[in-house]
Amino acid sequence: MRSAEEMSPGRPSAAEYTRRALAIMGVILLHLAVYYTVTRVNSNRPPEALNDPSIALDDKIPLLGWTWVFYWAAYPYLTLGAGLIVAAMPAADYRRAIKAFIVITFIGGGVQLLYPVAAPWTSEAHAMQTRMHESAFTRPYACLPSMHVAYSVITGFMGAMIARSRGLRWFHILLAAGITLSTLTLKEHYVADAVAGVMLGMGGGLWWWWKGRSIEA
C-alpha cells in the first residue's frame, strides 16, 4: 500500500470535491434506504421469526449511559469525517472506497434480512438513547451485523491508513474502538452484532487496501 503522502498527493479540484461530496451523500442515502427497508420488513415478522444471538458475556457488560458520547460521535465521524478522509485520497483509492462502502451496505442489509434480530434495548437507557428510540424512523430490527460498528471500523481503518502522523492514526483507531464498545455498553447491540460489524467493516477496509496494493504490483 502506498504511504500516507502518496495516498493524498494533492488537493482535488473544486469540481472533484463536489462530485465526491455527492457520492458520499449517495452512500448515506443508500444506507438510510436499506435501513428503512430492513427495519420495516423485520418489524412485520412474527416474534418467533426473530433470532436471539445473546451469549453469557452480554449479561456481564454493564450499562454505561455516559458512553452515548462515543455512540453519537459516530454520526459526525461517518459523515464529515469520512468525507474528509475520502476527499484526501487519489482518484483510484477514492472510487474503491466508495465501492467498499456500497458493498458492505448491501451485505449488511442482506444478512439483517436473512438473520433478523431485535436489539437488546432497555428501559433504563440514557435520555439521549431514549430520544433516538422514540423516533418514528428508528426501529430495533437492523442489528446483526451492527452497521454502526461496520461503518466506524471501515472509516477508522481508511483514516488510519492515510494518516500523516502517529497521533492521527491512533485517533482513528481509538475512536472506532470507542464507538464499537459503546454499542454494547448502551445495550444497542449484542456482542455478536458488534463482532459481525467489526468483521464486515474490516473486510471492506482490507479489500480496499488489498486492491490498491494489487494495482501497484
Structure, explained:
- The chain has helices at residues 4-7, 14-43, 56-60, 68-87, 91-114, 127-133, 147-162, 166-185, 191-216.
- Helix 4 (68-87) crosses helix 7 (147-162) and helix 5 (91-114) runs antiparallel to helix 7.
- The longest helix is centred in the first third of the chain and has 30 residues, at 14-43.
- The chain is built from nine helices and no strands.
- It has one domain (15-42, 65-216).
Descriptive labels:
217 residues; mainly alpha; 9 helices; globular
List the domain count as a whole number: 1
Largest sheet: none
Structural class: mainly alpha
Radius of gyration: 18 Å
Q: Whole-Å distance between the termini?
A: 10 Å
Give the averaged pLDDT, no decimals.
90
SSE string, helix = H, strand = E? HHHHHHHHH
Tell me the number of strands: 0
Helix content: over 70%
Instruction: Identify the overall geometry.
Output: globular
Strand content: under 5%
Helix run count = 9
Give a quick summary of the entry.
It contains nine helices and no strands.
Helices and strands in order:
Blueprint: H1 4-7, H2 14-43, H3 56-60, H4 68-87, H5 91-114, H6 127-133, H7 147-162, H8 166-185, H9 191-216
Helix pairs in contact: 2-4, 2-5, 4-7, 4-8, 5-7, 5-9, 7-8, 7-9
